[in-house]
Design brief:
Helices cover about 40% and strands about 15% of the residues. It is built from 10 helices and 8 strands. It binds 2-phosphoglycolic acid.
Length: about 240
């Protein structure tokens, strides 16, 4: 079943001490958050254990930002699904545009990582989205449908979250208009043709625009970068109206 999922993506931010401080400010803000909203924090690998310990039975679910396709081996700098699972991770971001852009992630490796996540009972959050140049060239739909086709080969759609993240809207303050995000997410939903997949919007989601974004019928949640780093701002997003 489609669920509302609000996930923070801390990217390469916060030491262990800083993550503890964040939780002290953030957790008390969840007292009145409607039960059906899933709240996720996707933190750097070094923060996973400390965040897990400091959630103190709260409703927040732990997420990582990448996973390797092998269970173990000579893959310097990588991390496996069993390592993530052991410390209480439930979600993992796969194929974020920063991974694709700066670390040569391809649709083929994204597919392998998605499979590994599902094999370890981690719910992958698959990121797809177009660049500014692709949008200007009217290639948005093609780009996204191609990503979905290649990334989702042999993937179980009942254990998957997709995030539509137009690359030109990430970290730029330049949010995609809510109606346009809704339209593209509708296309993604039609392409997946499965009633269970939650599809998030990501790209400059902030306290000031979250209400409008979440009012769109196709949008099941948000993947939030910059605005998830401050307890008050992420709490306002989670408690959108
Ligand atoms: P942003 O990042 O909210 O800072 O634009 C979103 C993301 O990259 O997931």
């Amino acid at each position: 079943m489609r669920k509302i999922i609000i996930a923070g993506n801390w990217k390469m931010h916060k030491t262990q001490a800083e993550s503890k401080e964040f939780l002290q400010g953030f957790l008390p803000e969840l007292e009145n958050t409607p039960d059906e909203r899933e709240v996720v924090l996707c933190v750097p690998f070094t923060d996973l254990a400390v965040v897990s310990q400091n959630l103190h039975g709260s409703r927040v679910r732990l997420g990582a930002q990448n996973v390797h396709w092998e269970d173990s081996g000579a893959y310097t700098g990588e991390i496996s699904g069993s390592m993530l699972k052991e410390i209480g991770t439930s979600y993992v971001i796969v194929g974020h545009s920063e991974r694709r852009q700066y670390f040569c992630e391809t649709d083929e490796t994204v597919n392998l990582r998605l499979k590994a996540a599902q094999n370890h009972n981690l719910i992958p959050i698959l990121c797809v989205g177009e660049t500014k140049a692709q949008r200007d060239a009217k290639k948005t739909e093609n780009v996204i449908i191609n990503q979905l086709k290649q990334d989702l080969v042999d993937i179980d759609l009942t254990k998957l979250v997709v995030a539509y993240e137009p690359i030109w809207a990430i970290g730029t303050g330049d949010t995609c208009e809510a109606k346009e995000a809704n339209r593209v997410i509708g296309l993604i939903r039609a392409q997946l043709d499965h009633p269970d997949v939650s599809i998030q919007y990501g790209g400059s989601v902030k306290p000031g625009n979250v209400d409008e974004i979440m009012a769109q019928p196709e949008i099941d949640g948000a993947l939030v970068g910059g605005a998830s780093l401050e307890p008050a701002s992420f709490a306002r997003i989670v408690n959108y109206q």
